[in-house]
Write a structure and sequence with these properties.
Layout (H helix, E strand, L loop, with lengths): L5 E8 L7 E8 L6 H11 L20 E4 L2 E4 L10 E4 L6 E3 L2 E2 L13
Parallel strand pairs: 1-5
Antiparallel strand pairs: 1-2, 3-4, 3-5, 6-7
The structure holds FE2/S2 (inorganic) cluster (FES).
The site of FE2/S2 (inorganic) cluster has 13 residues, from loops.
């Protein structure tokens, strides 16, 4: 019997003015799959409102996918999914926009002050 493997992804969610909450998703698991693979699967199959950012995918060039993976700063596109589950949250030292999206633009590159 060919049983499909799954793993759980706990995502810390919420908006800038909301109390953060954790939401658990059961996602397909394959060896070598990235945390970003799981997030895109969640957005496609479970909740299209899940906010996260990425651009280059595995080139380590854009740094847009930077999040906390099990409470450590990591790139979602290169961090591997764990068969025992993983927790993903927004960066803590950046202004939260929504869910996993934080304001990562360096102050000198900002066109105008967001406040
Ligand atoms: S998507 Fe660019 S570093 Fe991860």
């Amino acid at each position: 019997m060919n049983e499909k493997k799954t793993t759980s992804v706990c995502v810390v969610r919420g908006g800038a003015d909301e109390k953060p909450y954790e939401e658990n998703f059961e996602v397909p698991f394959e060896d070598g799959a990235s945390v970003l693979d799981a997030l895109t699967w969640i957005r496609s199959h479970k909740d299209s409102s899940l906010a996260f950012r990425y651009s280059c995918v595995s080139a380590n060039a854009c740094k847009e996918c930077m999040v906390l993976v099990n409470d450590k700063v990591d790139y979602a596109c290169t961090a591997r999914l764990d068969p025992d589950g993983v927790k993903v949250g927004p960066l803590k030292n950046k202004r939260l926009i929504r869910d996993l999206v934080t304001d990562i633009v360096p102050p000198k590159e900002r066109i105008s002050d967001p406040n």
